[in-house]
Design a protein that fits this description.
Oligomer: single chain
Pfam family, one: TruB_C_2
Protein name: tRNA pseudouridine synthase B
Structural class: alpha+beta
Largest sheet: 10 strands, mixed
Helix content: 10-25%
Family: Belongs to the pseudouridine synthase TruB family. Type 1 subfamily.
CATH topology of the largest domain: Pseudouridine synthase
Number of strands: 18
Radius of gyration: 21 Å
Number of domains: 3
Catalytic activity: uridine(55) in tRNA = pseudouridine(55) in tRNA
Number of helices: 8
CATH architecture of the largest domain: 2-Layer Sandwich
Shape: elongated
Order of helices and strands: EHEEHEEEHEEEHEEHEEHEHEHEEE
Function: Responsible for synthesis of pseudouridine from uracil-55 in the psi GC loop of transfer RNAs.
Strand content: 35-45%
CATH class of the largest domain: Alpha Beta
């Protein structure tokens, strides 16, 4: 690819790397500093990480607002400081009195529009400082509950492992939902504590593991999803005539109907901008030409 090429790269992130580690690797492979990602993944997590190169970085903020999907393992009977396996154990409890029916019944309460307190070691800023950094500095961080939506939560298996129970789930949810918080809250609801032991993101909006590539694969053959294809996958599309396309190039409103945030294209198929309906017209959200 050329250093000026723009597009998306969907990476299947391996365990142990931070999202910033992946960005650094992509910068070397793409030959440009202009690389960003749409939503972080913790080092223990694997799966879909969407990255933008050059002009496509401007798409990322809009992709971060889309729904996401995960496969996860929750361990009941142990609570940790971070609500996942990377934290220190703060409490244990026997799970002999909890069975699969109890787990399934409790998890039904996490589906739909819910109020969720993010994990204290999240990247949410508190007075300008990341919550996880405040925790590392020894502060007692209390975050406020936020509305999130869990569209679907499927329980695949409940397996007893000694004193603990491992619960295999799949979750489809709004951006901003913390799967670690579901693990924590499930344990609290059942009175035994809980934390996340495995997390794999399987989709970010329309980008799933089917289009993801490992870092090793990208090292052998680096390829971008062109920005036009990325926009067509992620947003409703409106094809414009030459006159309207000329208006878009200078950021003018359009007298055409658009369905929410919409990707608009010129007659030759070039991706021009994202537009949205506002005050009776279609107005630019971001122009890419």
């Amino acid at each position: 690819m050329t250093a000026t090429a723009s597009g998306l790269v969907v990476v299947d992130k391996p365990v142990g790397l931070t999202s910033h580690d992946v960005v650094s690797r992509l910068r070397r492979l793409a030959g440009t500093r202009k690389v960003g990602h749409a939503g972080t993944l913790d080092p223990m997590a694997t799966g879909v990480l969407v990255l933008g190169v050059n002009r496509a970085t401007r798409l990322l903020g809009h992709l971060m607002l889309t729904e996401k999907a995960y496969d996860a393992t929750v361990r009941l009977g142990v609570a940790t400081t971070t609500d996942d396996a990377e934290g220190e154990v703060v409490a244990t409890a026997p799970t002999a009195g909890v069975d699969e029916a109890d787990v399934r019944a409790a998890l039904t309460g996490f589906v739909g529009e819910i109020e969720q307190v993010p994990t204290a070691v999240s990247a949410i800023k508190v007075d300008g400082k990341r919550a996880y950094q405040r925790v590392r500095d020894g502060e007692d961080v209390q975050l406020k509950a936020r509305p999130v939506t869990v569209h679907e939560l499927v329980v695949h298996d409940v397996v007893r492992e000694g004193e603990q129970l491992d619960v295999e789930i799949s979750v489809r949810c709004s951006s901003g939902t913390y799967i670690r918080a579901i693990a924590r809250d499930l344990g609290a609801r059942l009175g035994v504590g809980g934390h996340l032991t495995a997390l794999r993101r399987t989709a970010v909006g329309p980008y799933d593991l089917g289009v993801a590539r490992t870092l090793d694969q990208l090292g052998e053959e680096f390829a971008l999803m062109p920005i036009a294809e990325a926009a067509r996958r992620a947003f409703p599309v409106r094809e414009l005539d030459a006159a309207h396309a000329a208006d878009v190039r200078v950021g003018r409103p359009l007298d055409v109907a658009v369905d929410g945030v919409t990707a608009v294209f010129d007659p030759a198929g070039e991706f021009l901008a994202l537009y949205e309906p506002r005050n009776g017209a279609a107005k630019p959200v971001a122009v890419f030409v």
